[in-house]
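All the exercises in this workshop are built on plain-text protein records. A record pairs a protein's sequence with a compact description of its fold. Read left to right, the backbone structure tokens trace the chain's path through space. Once this layout is familiar, the rest of the handout is easier to follow. Here is such a record, shown just as it appears in the course material:
>
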Amino acid sequence: MAWIAIILFVAATLTGGAAIAYVTGAAAVLSFFAADQARHLAILPQRVLSQLDVFTFLAMPLFILAGELMSRGGITRALIDLAMLIVGRFRGGLGHVNVATSIFMSSMSGSAVADAAATTSALVPEMRKRGYPAEYATALTAASSVLGPLIPPSVVMIFYGALMNVSVAALFAGGILPGLFVAAGLFAYNAYAARRYNLPGGRNTEMPAVFPTLVKALPALFVPAVMLGGIVFGIVTPTEAAALAVVIATLTGATYALQQPGVGNRKAMREFVGHLNAALERAALLTGAIFVILFAAAIFGYLVAIQNLPQHIAALIDSAGISGVGYLLLITMFFLVVGMFMDNMMAMVLLVPLLIPAAIAGGADPVHVGVVVCLNLTIGLVSPPVGGVLMVVSAMSGVSYLKLARAILPLFFLLVVMLLVLVLVPEITLYIPRQAGFVQ
């Protein structure tokens, strides 16, 4: 009877445009009555609040705040200049800069939409000005944004870890090599496109000054170094790393503000305080929205547990004779199709508690499955017909959604191929977690 929740959830969200949290919670509560499980509602508040009373959850608002501070404090521009120094002289150099900037941004914000918005506003106009086709510039920007939730820190991984009770630190460690693997694929595609379509760039490309660029970018790079190094080597927890990221982002933003040419210190600090207030407000709004979704997800998860749906699905898989890898490939393709129509958070709340336990019971490693699912659902953000990142990039760049959807198809298929490689070769994901002692 828990499938009633699924039907109500999908119908209300797709047809009525209602908020995910409200639909999930309402559908789950109604399903308690439909399944004759209303007696369990008496202990529902205690169960839900106990599921949300997790120390790791503190990392989520802190990472969101750190990302907001960085995007508003001039750090994005410093990272773009650094990427230009590293890869800007290659043919199609700005395309490489686009991907490299996404790598740097991913290690700070953890959000595909945030990364896409930042790189679209900062890079796409410059790419178009230098002769890149608008459709290609926006498609590459959208495709690069999938690195946001893959390279730690990742809000999606924290969300997944909470749903499935998987170590967030292990998921963060597991996302590093897959993120670099996907980035390498995007670099290779851009190099191919640069030669085939004669994209601009080369040795004569104007470059930023080396020393000032390095001086400005190093404080920004200190943030991911502290977070990743501290988490992987066990020096700090994800929550402590997030708190350090907020401190470093605040100090770096204040330093950048004071270094603005032609702006007095008092005016610069007023501007910085304004950015700080805006970042706090935005982080509070996003955190509130995410925790409401988590609250509703906990209700749905309680219903799923009462109905023993994961066990039923596992029994069905066993009776069908589908192996562990076969089942993992099956749900991977299913998630890809779902991601074309459904928001990634919605899909995670609705499907992960139902489908993933059977994969783990079949022998799949929880960290490997978690990283694959997070990438899988994130690819949905850049897949037509309802890609959330595509909508953001289209609105910000002025490129029509249909043209962008057509232009991103080759990159979408490339991402799918790399996703399948990660499914079939779990060692890519598990190598660093094993070395760090998170996985045996």
Notes: Residues 223 and 245 are 6 Å apart (CA to CA). The chain has one domain: 3-435. The chain is about 75% helix and 0% strand. Confidence is low (pLDDT under 50) at residues 13-17.
